[in-house]
Amino acid sequence: MEYPNCRLASLQELLKRLPSPHRAIIPKAHDAGTTEFENAIFALQEMRHTFSHFPPMSWSIEKAYMLEAIRIVLQKTKTIVSGAGYETQNRFHQTETENLLIKCIEITEKLLSISTQSPSPKAST
Fold this sequence. Notes:
The protein is mainly α. The protein has helices at about 10-15, 35-55, 65-80, 95-115.
């Protein structure tokens, strides 16, 4: 089989290519990262790896943590896109990308607040 000349970079490679103040690594273990962002990337990468490489026996996803990890990654992405020196490499204008990230962050925060609310106690009769 012949591979195309162009290949997608791995997540680890893409994290290395970030501007220096934002560079990150994927830690080898949860909570081994030096930043909240690195720990969130680890959690999402592990979830992706588990879902894509192993047949499901049963799944249990901690929704609140997953949403928090997604929120952290979206916030970091917005910070990078909003920063000086960011050059768009896609068909979107910088303002459109920032607005999309803001909307995604808002939705994630709403979902997070809903998922962490405890059910109201039922009135006793």
